């Protein structure tokens, strides 16, 4: 087995490598002076089962190109099998035509990865599960739920909790956590009555005097979470915390979260921490390196990946 790290998330790649007790393959992923991506794998990979670790996070286009070029380098180096390990799959929110003459970019990215020569994809909490079907190669979509449950049980008494889906699209994810913890579930239904008017937030479920845990797959601008936290507090919730798989946290999102009624935001390390993230007091990472490492091991040994979640 060979593990190759591109540039998006070196700490996570090192965590996976430590879990597998397998050093990262020597490789250079760099830029020419005009910013073209250049990759050189500095070890023999002929006949090897290879895994590339790369989130297509900010800057999404550069990181995507690094991934594609690295797949090509491994293919031309005669790797036996190439698995693209994409902890955060960027472009996933463009998974359908949002209007006339708009692209389905998630499908285009899936095509690019496949055409580059990837044999398999391994990812976690795809924004929409059906994106798996955009790939015509085997694609394993892991879930962060077990990692979150373990952390929630270490820090909260489930009896006091109410799990919250911050929008209707997140109900399945939130419900799977509520079911495992045997807690109540509430749903925030947000609607814009007319263009230009502010969103109306209705809460379906009882949150008064409850400790609320918001569950989502992505926090980007922070708007969804912070608005939800304000609505919950003004509806009588005692406290609001959040667990979100992918901390995109673009622009001033970390500052926005810091000044919101959210007590804390826990994300996985699918996206590397920025400096703002590292110094912020109410945000933290829990690592998915062991989960991804175990999945890589099972793929390599041709063992079941789904049984990780039994
Ligand atoms: C939406 O469908 C997603 O699950 C997230 O709720 C959304 O992407 C979060 O974005 P933001 O933090 O910018 O509100």
Short key terms for the protein model shown above:
310 residues; alpha/beta; Rossmann fold; seven-stranded mixed β-sheet; five-stranded parallel β-sheet; 31% helix; 25% strand; binds ribose-5-phosphate
Q: Please give the order of strands in the largest beta sheet.
A: 10-9-8-11-12-13-14
- Overall geometry comes to globular
The number of distinct structural domains comes to 2
Largest sheet: 7 strands, mixed
CATH second-level architecture of the largest domain: 3-Layer(aba) Sandwich
Radius of gyration: 20 Å
Q: Helicity range of the residues?
A: 25-40%
What does this structure look like?
This protein has 310 residues and is an alpha/beta fold. It has 2 domains: 2-143 and 290-309, Rossmann fold (3-Layer(aba) Sandwich), CATH 3.40.50.2020; 145-287, Rossmann fold (3-Layer(aba) Sandwich), CATH 3.40.50. It is 31% helix and 25% strand. It has 9 helices and 14 strands. The protein has helices at 10-20, 60-76, 105-116, 145-155, 171-181, 223-234, 253-258, 275-279, 289-300, and strands at residues 2-5, 27-31, 37-41, 49-53, 81-86, 120-124, 139-142, 161-165, 184-191, 200-204, 211-219, 239-247, 264-268, 283-286. Strand 13 (264-268), helix 8 and strand 14 (283-286) form a beta-alpha-beta unit. Helix 1 packs across helix 9 (289-300) and helix 2 (60-76) packs parallel to helix 3. The protein starts with a strand and ends in a 10-residue tail after the last helix. The structure holds ribose-5-phosphate (R5P). Ribose-5-phosphate (R5P) binds next to strand 11 and helix 6.
């Amino acid at each position: 087995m060979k593990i190759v790290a591109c540039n998006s998330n070196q700490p996570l790649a090192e965590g996976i490598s430590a879990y597998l007790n397998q050093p990262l393959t020597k490789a250079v992923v760099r830029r020419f002076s005009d910013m073209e991506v250049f990759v050189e794998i500095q070890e023999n990979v002929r006949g090897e089962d290879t895994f590339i670790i790369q989130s297509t996070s900010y800057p999404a286009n550069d990181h995507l190109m690094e991934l594609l070029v690295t797949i090509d380098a491994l293919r031309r180096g005669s790797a036996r099998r190439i698995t693209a390990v994409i902890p955060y799959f960027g472009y996933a929110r463009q998974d359908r035509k949002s209007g006339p003459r708009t692209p389905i970019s998630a499908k285009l990215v899936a095509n690019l990865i496949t055409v580059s020569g990837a044999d398999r994809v391994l990812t976690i909490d795809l924004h929409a599960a059906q994106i798996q079907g955009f790939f015509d190669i085997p694609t394993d979509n892991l879930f962060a739920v077990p990692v979150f449950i373990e952390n929630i049980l270490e820090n909260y008494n489930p009896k006091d909790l109410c799990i919250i889906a911050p929008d209707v699209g997140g109900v399945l994810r939130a419900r799977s956590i509520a079911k495992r913890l045997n807690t109540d579930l509430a749903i925030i239904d947000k609607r814009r009555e007319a263009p230009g008017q502010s969103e109306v937030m209705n809460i379906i479920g009882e949150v008064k005097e409850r400790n609320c845990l918001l569950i989502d797959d992505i926090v980007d601008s922070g708007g969804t979470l912070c608005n939800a936290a304000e609505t919950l507090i003004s509806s009588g919730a005692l406290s609001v915390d959040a667990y979100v798989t992918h901390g995109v946290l673009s622009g001033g999102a970390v500052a926005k979260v810091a000044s919101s009624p959210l007590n804390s935001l826990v994300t996985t390390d699918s996206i590397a921490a920025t400096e703002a993230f590292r110094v912020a007091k109410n945000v933290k990472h829990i690592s998915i390196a062991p989960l991804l490492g175990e999945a890589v091991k099972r793929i390599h040994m041709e063992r079941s990946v789904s049984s990780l979640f039994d």
